[in-house]
Structures are given as structure tokens and as C-alpha cells.
Amino acid sequence: MRNVTKRFPGVVANDSVDLTIESGEILGLLGENGAGKTTLMNILYGLYSADEGEILVDGAVTKFDDPGDAIAAGIGMVHQHFMLVPVFDVTENVVLGVEPTVGPVGTIDMTEARREVQEISTQYRLEIDPSATVEDLPVGIQQRIEIIKVLFRDAEIIVFDEPTAVLTPQEVEDFFGIINGLKESGKGIIFITHKLGEILEIADRIAVLRRGKVVGEVVPAEATEEQLAEMMVGRPVDLVVEKEDADPGEVVLSVTDLLVRDDRQHTAVDRVSFEVRSGEIVGVAGVQGNGQTELVEALTGLTVPLSGMIHLGGENVTLVSPRFMHRNSVAHVPEDRQRSGLILDFDVAENLVLNSYYDEPYSHGIRMDWDYAHQHADQLIDQYDIRTPSSTVKVSSLSGGNQQKLIVAREFSRDTKLIIASQPTRGIDVGSIEYVHARIVAERDAGAAVLIVSSELDEILALSDRILVMYRGRIVAEVTGGEATATELGLYMAGLST
Amino acid sequence: MTAVAGTADFVRAPAEIRRARILGIVYLLLATVVFLFFAVGTEGDVTFRLGDQPGDLDFTVSAQVLATFTAVVFAFLGGIQLTKGFGAKTNVVLAIAIGLFAFSFLGWAAAGKSLSLIGMLGTTVALAAPIAFGALSGVMCERVGVINIGIEGMLLTGAFTGAVVGTVMSPLFGILGAAIAGGLMALALAVLAIKYRVDQIIAGVVINIFALGLTSFLSSQFLVENASGLNNPGVLGPIRIPLLAEIPVLGRILFDQNIFIYVMYLLVAGMTYGLFKTRWGLQSRAVGEHPKAADTLGINVFRRRYINVFLGGLIAGFGGAYFTLGSVGAFNENMTAGRGFIGLAAMIFGRWHPVGALGAALVFGFADSLQVKLGILDTGIPSEFLLSAPYLVTIIVVAGVVGKARPPAADGQPYIKE
């Protein structure tokens, strides 16, 4: 890629980027969330078109109008969010778009298709059942399907966008084995991540992207995590969260035998019991989709559990509304800030009063006091370091990190007895992560009970005083914060150890 | 603070168990209704005729015995439903039960008389046809993720065009013109829904209003004054398929119909094969389930949607021609009378599958023909109530029987390519 530039309204996502990849090589592409990694790869894959610059494959200038062109040129991509049709089986997903057919009307030769999928599966040791339905498979296996999909299209260059985000540490090891195998068979691999340890372990060469620019290229042998972090963020970064030992007080949240079903009537939370005390942070670790979402929804009153009990400060709150929880000093940072944390078309001030607009002093009777709401917003913008031109800007134009800080400001600025934070730092920049973590620790020290749900193991390890591991809806382990290791938790997360 | 009363555990029954219980109670209620209304005090035998002529293939039974038998079966079903349930077979059992209920109802209505069952079933197929075309059109569009509420309008446009072109040129050209007219309406929907990303429900409603207004206006302005020159296409007669039509009972019902019905069979078979066995179908379904995934594999989401919505319009337009060229023989204002909407219900009931859609259309067609028959039998039930029967069945079926059907995941969502 030579001199590639891509502009979006208001931002330059990629600024004159030069990048080369050779066959039999793993190139690590490191950068913060929002540094332009995904945009760059989408240009390479033909999903976006570059405003300037060109892409050369085997020395020849090529132009990709859509992913079909990129596929034809031997470029394959495993997306961060898997591009699989859940109701199709494995083979249908693999052959989609390049189906082997027989006869005049394009009848798909499923026998041949299954045979070819099986062949790739055996050749690259990607074990899979070609006729299993995708939605029934765990994410680790779904990732294998994505890899088979790419290989089925004879890709020579394979891009992996944050491939380890959804895997347990053990699955990551397997995955590294797979991409090393692909490298040995001569494929060129681009590995995109923001995780420093992984990139040092697997890459042959590392390119660091910051604010759309390549700020440096290094060889893993000559780099340390601290150096990479500094290159990535542009200033020295403190990689550990500073906190004192916890001093747990009385029980604030108590959950007994909680059973929750998801929309499809499958048991998502399976008779879970635990307690959270004031002044401690309890982390819930687990691979995404093991019931954490449903657990949080039940705790915050968003879904009705099938059976079990939830007590808040000794009071039964099993069947109360979300508003009741808010009014009783429960703060909730939802896992998807854009879908359930904010109203993107509302401005900053409006979003900051979403949980309190109905009470004095924000409203008097049926009338909203917008002047007060804006004053209040200005104060919080200052206090919580939300980078926005003013309180009248739509939140959709804020960066992910600032959107998250806005939610934290809204939830934490009230009286907080219990904080439930789900994926509190997903997809935000390092500066904002540091800030959010510091805030959570500060709330704990001020006496709040904190429940953190995160699929980022590093985050759980850095913050938690006590760690619960969820696997298939059950809590399979409880460990003390300082004593746990990633490997140990990984075994629990994969259900391999109980 | 409003505290929740009590501290004991609570248990909420899951949805499927609640549904099974409700269904069980409904069975028991129906058993009572059947016994009290259809069995008690009913006298005389009813003769169901299955042959062309009286006496060919008759089947005579006492109406009271039939109703009592039905009541007992329903009570039995209710008992099973409430205790252990039918599990995966619930819907099949329900379908059979509904059929049985219809039979005993007919027995009561026609007690002491004879009833041409074969005629009624033939009518069922004929009345199901426009509903089935609507449903198939819906399957075509929704499988690629475009909701088509405008089917009613496309049927109506097809009916109008079929009548006019059929009169001026020939019925076969009428059919062709009707299909194209439906296709053009669908293209309008496609442009609104795909290119301009207008809310698809609203776009469809607009199409319906436009079609109703336009055809009514043109009809009152031109067709009424010049009916013989513009609105007199004639009806395409039945074609007996050799051999197949000789099959006892079924042959008469299925293979002695006009060309629309045969096209319907072919369409159901062709669409089923196409959607589930060919690359066109796989790609179409992928576009309806996960358009972004399809896009990343080089499938042109927009083109696939345009083509399939257009094909859906052709089907609806063709189905519309059935009203004028296959059944009535002339265009009347708003003659489709909601059949397009019932078609949508049939599509949902049939779970977005062509065969299911046809089956559902037959259920609605049966309700329709029952209403016609009961009108003739003069049972004392008000005719307004009878006329509402197909719509009543639609509501009951969609609200109660279908359960939770899963539409294509991207149904109704415009695809935005960055």
C-alpha cells in the first residue's frame, strides 16, 4: 500500500500510509482504537475506497471497487465481527459467493462443496463439522470457519482484524498455532490488534499506527511493551491500575439462585448466586456470550428472571423496574454504549439527564428546566474531562472514549451505592481507559460496591478484588484478585477446569 | 420506596408452557362448544359428496354422531395438551383438529341435506390462488430483506391491467401485462426502500393507496362507460390435465383448474428448489439474513434486492390477473379486498417458505369457501359475520397458532454501504 489517504467528515482516518507485506510473513499492525487500522484494512479489502494512494499486488497497481475484486486479487479478511450467516451451515457459509454448481440453473453441488471444505479443514488442521449450523457453534469454531472461508478463495494475503478479542487464552494459543501454519505455507498475514503482548509473541514485524499515520516499524526482538505502548499512544503509559487493597464492608448486592432465559428461551444464567460488598470490586470474567449480558439485564431490572432472588441492601428487588434501581443509587454502564447507553441523536446535556430528568431540579412538574440541565452538563463536562465543543453537540459526533466518559459522568455523578459496569472500556482509547479505570477505583474507595463485567481478561485482572468466572451461564470459579493468573482464569473460561 | 411483597422465591412459567396450557384450555372449550351447539338437538344425516354427480362417491353420517365424536376427540386432545403436551407435533395436531372442527361444523350446518365436498375443495384451491400468489411474492421480497406491504396494490394493479390488456389484445397478453404492471410497482417500492431507504412499511402503504386510487379513478372514468371495449376480457377456462385429472377425488380438485393454478404449483416447486438448492437462492437468503456478510464476499446486495423485489412484483401482478382473467371476468373497484394482506399473513404462517405459504393460503382459501357455502346453506348465521370469516381466521392464525416464527434477520432493514 502506498501513500493511502482516507478522509471522513471531520477526520483523516488514514494519512499517507505506506505498508508492505511479504509472503510467509506476519505483519503486526498495532494501534489504539480509532487509530485507523480497520479503515486501512477495509480499503485494502475494497469495502472503502481511498481518497488518495494506491494498492500494489505483486508489483502491479490494482484498484478494488468492491470486496469481489480484492478476493480475486488474493486478499482475504477475517473481520472483527464475524461475517457469518447464523442460520446457514458451515459449508454454505464457506462457499457463499463462489458456490460449485452443476446444471443449467446453478444448482449447488453440496456434496462437492462439503468435500472441499473437509479437505481444507484436514489440510490446515482446522477441525470442523461441515454440516453444523453456525449459530450453534462457539466463537472459536466460528473463527475457524472464517479462516476456511478465506482459504477456500485461495487468498495469499490474509488480514485478521482483532482476532483474539473473543477468544480465551487457550484458544489464542491454538489460534497462534494456526496462523503460524498458514505462514509456513507461504501466506502473507496481517495481524491487527491493540494487545501488546500478543503482537510481540506472534509478529515478524510490527507497524504502529497513530491517528491515521504509521509512526514507526519495529522488530519484536528489539521492542518492549512499554516502548510499543508509548509509540501507540504518543506518551508514556502506565500499564497498571494503581489501587490500594480493598476494605469490603456490608453486603450491598446479593444474588441467590438466579435463573434467566434469553430471547430464544435458552437458559442464559443458570442458578447463579453471589454477593458484592461495599468497597470492593467484583469482576465477572468469561468469554462473551456465556450469560453475562443476561445477568446484567436481570440485575438492572431490564429483564425478568425466571426464578431466584436479587437483594439490594437487604431489600428484595427481583421484580423492580430499571427506574427503581436508578432511584436507589444503582449506576449502570451498559455494554453497548451506542445501542443502550446513549441516544445518539440527543445532545450532550440531554444524554446527561437521561436517568434524572424526571426529578427536581431538572424538571418542575411537567416542565423541563433546560437551563439547569445545561449548567449541570457544563459542570460534568469539566469534572469528567469529556472532550466536546459544548453541551449542545449531538453525542453521535463524540469519539467512543468521550461517549463512554459521558455515560460514566451521568452514572457516577449521582449518589452511588452499587455500580454495575459492563465492558466499561470496550473500543475506547488508552487515555480514556486509564480515566475510566481510575474513576471506578475512586468510587470503590468512596464506599460503592462495584460489579465489573468484561471479556478483557487484562481489565478484570487489573481492577478486581475478587473474580468470578462465568461459563455457560454458571459461575464456575471464584478467585481472589491479586492471586489469579490469566492462564488459570483461561482454563475456567473455557470450561476446562472447575 | 415500593418494596416487593414477600421474600419467597417466585417462578414464572416459560412462554411455551403457557402457550401449551392456553391451547389445552381452548381444546376443552371447543369440545364443550361442539357438543352443546353442534351435537345436542341436531337431527338428520349429512351426506358429503366426493364425486361429480350425486351418488358417485357419497359418504353419509349422522350429524349428531359426527359432532359428538369431534367433541370427544377435542376433550381428549385438551387432556393430553394439559398434561404432557404434543411437543414438536403441536402445530400438526392443531391443524388436524381445526379440520375436524370444520367438518363437524359443516355437518351441523348441512344436517338433513347433502353437501358437495368436492366442489367446496375445488373452490378452496381457486380461492387460495390469489392469496398464494401474494404470499409467494412476499417470500420473494422478504427473503432478501425487503418487506413488501404493497402486495395488495400490486395485485390490484395486476387485476386492472389484466382486464384492460386482456380485452384490447388477448387474455395471454393480459396476463403478461398484469405481471409487468406488478413488476413496475415493485420497482417503485425497491427504489424507495433500497435506494432512498424510506421506511418499508410506509413505502408499501403508499403503493397500496396509489394503486387503489389510480385503478378506481381509471375504472370509473373509462371502464364503466366502455365496459365491452375495455373491461370484458372473458375468463380463461379450466384445462383438464390428462391422466392426472383421472385420479379419484384429488384429480378433480387439483388438476381440472385454469392456467393460474398450474402456474401456482410450478411457482411453489420452482421457488422452493431455487431458494434452497441453487446459488441464486443461497445468495438471496444470505442477503436477507446478513447483508454485510454477503457484501464482504463480493455479492452485490443492492442488485440482488432489486432483482428479487422485481420478481416478487411480477408474481403479485400475475396473481392479480387471476381476479379478472381467472375468476370474475371483469375489473371492479378494490376487487382484491385485502387478499394481498391475507397473503402476507399466509407468508408468516408459512414461515417464509413457499410450500408453507401455499399450505397457509389453502387454510385461508378454505375459510373463504366455507363462508360461500354457508351463505348458500342458509344456516341463520348473519352473512356479514360469514363474510368476515377469512379475516377472523387470519387474526386467529397469526396471533395464536404461529407461535414465534423467525423472519429473515435483516428483514425490513435497509443496507447502508459505507
Explain how this protein is built.
The complex is a heterodimer of chains A (498) and B (418). Chain A folds into two domains: 2-233, Rossmann fold; 251-493, P-loop containing nucleotide triphosphate hydrolases (Rossmann fold, 3-Layer(aba) Sandwich). Chain A has 17 helices and 24 strands. A six-stranded mixed sheet of chain A has the order 6-9-10-3-11-12, with helices on both faces. The longest helix of chain A has 16 residues, at 169-184. The two termini of chain A are 48 Å apart. Chain B is mostly helical and 418 residues long. Chain B folds into two domains: 2-112, no CATH class; 122-398, Orthogonal Bundle (ABC transporter involved in vitamin B12 uptake, BtuC), CATH 1.10.3470. The longest helix of chain B has 28 residues, at 301-328. Classes of the chains: A alpha/beta (498), B mainly alpha (418).
Can you lay out the helices and strands and say which pair or pack?
The complex is a heterodimer of chains A (498) and B (418).
Chain A lengths: L1 E7 L2 E7 L8 E6 L5 H8 L7 E6 L2 E3 L4 H6 L2 E4 L11 H6 L5 E2 L4 E2 L1 H14 L15 H14 L4 E5 L7 H16 L3 E6 L2 H7 L2 E6 L2 E6 L6 H9 L17 E11 L5 E11 L3 E5 L6 H8 L7 E6 L2 E2 L5 H6 L2 E4 L3 H5 L6 H5 L10 E2 L2 E2 L1 H14 L16 H13 L5 E5 L7 H16 L3 E5 L3 H7 L2 E6 L2 E7 L5 H8 L5
Helix pairs in contact in A: 14-15
Chain B lengths: L14 H25 L5 E5 L8 E5 H21 L6 H20 L4 E3 H26 L8 H18 L2 H25 L4 H24 L3 H4 L8 E2 L9 H5 L1 E2 L1 H19 L1 H11 L1 H6 L4 H28 L10 H11 L4 H24 L5 H5 L1 H13 L17
Helix pairs in contact in B: 1-2, 1-3, 2-3, 4-10, 4-13, 4-14, 4-15, 5-6, 5-7, 5-13, 5-14, 6-7, 6-13, 10-11, 14-15, 14-17, 15-17
